[in-house]
Amino acid sequence: MNIFVAGRYSTKVGELWDLSLADLFVEAVNGVINQAELEPPQIEAVFVASKAAGEFNHQLHLNALVSQFFKHQPPAMRIEGACASGGLALIAAEQALLSGQYKTVLVVGAEKMTDVGANRATEILSMAASDDLERGSTFPGLYALLAERHMAEFGTTREQLSAVAVKNHRQALNNPLAQFHQEFNLEQVSCSPMIASPLRLLDCSPISDGAAAVILTSKKIKNKPRIIGFGHAQDSLDLAHRRTLTELVATKRATEQALAMAKLTPQEISLAEVHDCFTIAEIFAIEDLGFFKKGDGGRATLAGETAVGGKVVVNQSGGLKAFGHPIGATGIKQLVYVADQLEQDRCQYGLTHNVGGSGATAVVHILSKQ
Fold it and tell me: Where are the domains of the chain?
């Protein structure tokens, strides 16, 4: 499989009051074209990711919005899969390249979430849960149920949850694009305000604005990272129909697909950007991705095995927790970060893991340096 990351770009992530949704798209599109050193007409198609621009910004028809930035107005489509929208847009672009329909495409994702208040934002985000079976729930509440079950079955502790946030905030200090540049200790995380027991404020990823873009091509380009595997899987929308509450089955299935395509094992991956929308989500991820056995993710995190210098570096960018979580951009900015590390020769293989809802959708990508 020859899919190369010809260009990559991420905006600053944060509460970007002075920028509109269109501004974020424009910055990401112009930024990635300039970084790739391509001419705009070389873009044959565009894949746009956004979860809820209609609710956050009263703007739909985003494919047309982005396509009009180009004089030749390439064909474009908008893809939504909750917080996995970015990952799914990448999958759609890769399939289009592998089919031979296109040679070079743009994938761009953006979310402008601060145009509404916190209560409205929570309501919008909750639309990614089951309206029939989980109406009135919030994602902190749903992930709190997963956390409680994991803690009961495996002895995962409050301190281990806090260790995820401490690590990711510390690692974000080296990421100039991150939303937060502030360190916390275990006690500060463990004593932050309760949101949904056992999850506290500093267990939760923030409301974020931001955009990210990549240019993918089937034309071989020297010294550019290559996508060597990807996987996409689903589970039930609601928790009630899951076969278990101690693993995310969609993550496991998507990982199996990606590893088989890449012909690798989890032990060969040294860098991973995973979907830590909540601290418990990172513990689930590192277990379901195969880095640690089930029930051992919290212990490994507290022991420093997922920090820089550990067994596998997880969320070196700061993750969703500290880099930020502009939903439609998240899966793409993960790939932007890993591609950058590969191009700088800091690792051989990198992985990205993007999740929608409480685990109903999962997308995994594996990249390699040439």
Answer: 3-117+207-217
C-alpha closest to that of 352 among 366, 369, 339, 340 = 366
Give the model confidence (pLDDT) of 231-275 as tens digits.
999 999 999 999 999 999 999 999 999 999 999 999 999 999 999
Q: What digits encode the pLDDT tens for the residues 33-50?
A: 999 999 999 999 999 999
The hierarchical CATH code for the domain 3-117+207-217 is 3.40.47.10
Q: Which of these is catalytic: 325, 347, 353, 365?
A: 325
72 catalytic? Reply is no
Gyration radius from the chain CA atoms: 19
Q: What is the pLDDT of residue 370?
A: 81
Q: Residue 96, Cα to own-chain centre: how many angstroms?
A: 21
Q: Which of 83, 204, 277, 347 is catalytic?
A: 83
83 is catalytic: yes
